[in-house]
Input
Amino acid sequence: MDVQGLLTRCVDDAAIVLGVLAGHDPKDSTTVQDPVKPFMLPSLTNVSKLCIGIPKEYLVLELSSEEQSLWSKVADLFESEGTKVTEVSFSHITYSIVCYHLLCISEAASSIARFDGLQYGHRCDIDVSTEATDIATR
Output
C-alpha cells in the first residue's frame, strides 16, 4: 500500500469512528442532544508538507518485533514521500492513566450526584440544617 492509500484509509477510518461516537446517546444522560452533521474531511494529496512525530515512550521493549517493524515501515513510507518524521517525547505520559482514572471517577461522581435521594424519592422535612436534612433523608 502506498502512503496516500495508507493515509486515506486511516483518515477515513477515524472519520467513521468519530461519526459513530458523535451525537446523543439515549443511554447516557450526559451527552449533548444537538444534531450532528456528517464529517467531511478534506483529502490530502501532498504529504510532503506533513511533520509526523513518533513518541519515543510508545516504542518500548514490550512491543513485539512485528509491531516495531510496522512502526519503522510506516515511518519509512512517509519519509520516502517527503514527510518529515521525527521522534518526540511526552515527558509526562506516565501520569496519563492516573489522570484519566481521576477524571473518570470525578465525572461519574458528578453525574450520579443528582440521584442522591434529596431531589428524587423520599425527602425528610427536617429544616434544622442541611446536614440534618441529608442524614434524615438518607
